[in-house]
Amino acid sequence: MEKRLVTQYAMKSVDAAAENQRRIEAVFAELEASAPDNVSYLVLRLADDSFIHVSFHDHGDEVNPISSTEAFARFQEGHADRRQGDVNQQVATLVGAYITTIA
After folding, report:
1. 57 torsion bin: left (phi>0), alpha (psi -120 to 50), beta (else)
2. 12-71: per-residue pLDDT in tens?
3. Is residue 66 part of a domain?
4. Among 46, 71, 80, 95, which has the highest number of CB atoms less than 10 A from its own CB?
5. What CATH number does the domain containing 16 carry?
6. Could you tell me the pTM of the whole model?
7. How many domains does the chain have?
8. Sign of CA dihedral 85, 59, 92, 34
């Protein structure tokens, strides 16, 4: 994969985190339906109700299959209002990976 991003942010409340999770789940449902083969995406909700997004992109100059979904646009609506503080997004280097079925 050409580009690897890790994004982390905190939420203002448990309710804000729950709403954020619902919106992220809608993004995954849309990705599942469209099944792009040039991206991998993982989101974790931590015990403190913060979130970590890890994405692997290989779409070159094509449209990003995550951020171009309608569900992602809805996810971003009001995100700053749900979030506490800034978003920390960094390009990452893959050191290694071992992946089995994730549930």
Report:
1. beta
2. 999 999 999 999 999 999 999 999 888 899 999 999 999 999 999 887 777 888 988 999
3. yes
4. 71
5. 3.30.70.100
6. 0.89
7. 1
8. positive
